[in-house]
């Protein structure tokens, strides 16, 4: 019997609010990311608000704390959880830790991140503040593959957002976030189509 094509299994890593995780999960549920499922949401923070929002959606959640361990040891526990669940794509969504080389090597080309600026401008923390400090008239968001560089991996998709006079970090962040939520689902579609058609 010819079955449905296997669904791509997505893991989303968060550390906090999880609004991008919610956007991705809801896009999957709405059929906007066909042939995919959010298999698990992993947080390094036990109090991440996103965990509850994932549970409400019936998604498995897992907390894997750093607990003073080396980055490599922490990541190994995460990799084991991902392997156990046969994860195809990892989406970082406000995950506030730098990944070890081992993690990146284990899933090269299958880890993506969203960042609130038009990379390569304003990498790292406080991207919106950086844009305001530089007097930028345009900022935006970027979805990119994760490699060993800080927010420097190959770019998958970007969206511009205007910066207005009198903008604060809060007002600019809010305007960018609206676009992040749309862009992430679009970019995940692009990546999954690519993975699907690769030999
Ligand atoms: C977003 O602005 C994302 O671009 C950045 O961290 C923030 C996470 O927000 N990497 P949320 O947890 O997805 O709401």
Describe this structure in words.
There is one protein chain. A seven-stranded mixed sheet has the order 3-2-1-4-5-6-7. The chain has one domain: Rossmann fold. The mean pLDDT is 96. The protein is built from six helices and seven strands, in the order βαβαβαβαβαββα. Strand 4, helix 4 and strand 5 form a beta-alpha-beta unit. The protein has 199 residues and is of the alpha/beta class.
Number of domains: 1
* CATH class division: Alpha Beta
Count of strand segments: 7
Shape, principal axes of CA atoms: globular
Determine the structural class based on helices, strands and strand pairing: alpha/beta
Report the helical percentage. Answer: 25-40%
Q: What radius of gyration results from the CA coordinates?
A: 17 Å
- CATH H-level homologous superfamily name: Formyl transferase, N-terminal domain
Main beta-sheet strand count, sense and barrel state:
7 strands, mixed
Bound molecules: 5-O-phosphono-beta-D-ribofuranosylamine
């Amino acid at each position: 019997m010819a079955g449905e094509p296997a669904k791509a299994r997505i893991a989303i890593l968060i550390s906090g609010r999880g609004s991008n995780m919610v956007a991705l999960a809801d896009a999957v549920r709405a059929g906007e990311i066909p042939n995919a499922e959010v298999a698990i949401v992993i947080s390094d923070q036990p109090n991440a608000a996103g965990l509850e929002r994932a549970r409400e959606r019936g998604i498995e959640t897992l907390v894997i704390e750093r607990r003073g361990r080396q980055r490599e040891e922490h990541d190994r526990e995460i990799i084991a959880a991902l392997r156990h669940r046969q994860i195809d794509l990892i989406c970082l969504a406000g995950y506030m830790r730098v990944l070890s080389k081992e993690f990146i090597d284990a899933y090269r080309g299958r880890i993506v991140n969203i960042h609130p600026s038009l990379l390569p401008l304003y990498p790292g923390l406080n991207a919106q503040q950086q844009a305001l400090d530089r007097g930028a008239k345009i900022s935006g968001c970027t979805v990119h593959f994760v490699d060993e560089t800080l927010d420097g991996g190959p770019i998958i998709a970007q969206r511009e957002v205007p910066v207005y006079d009198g903008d604060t970090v809060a007002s600019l962040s809010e305007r960018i976030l609206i676009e992040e939520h749309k862009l992430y689902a679009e970019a995940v579609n692009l990546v999954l189509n690519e993975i699907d058609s690769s030999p």
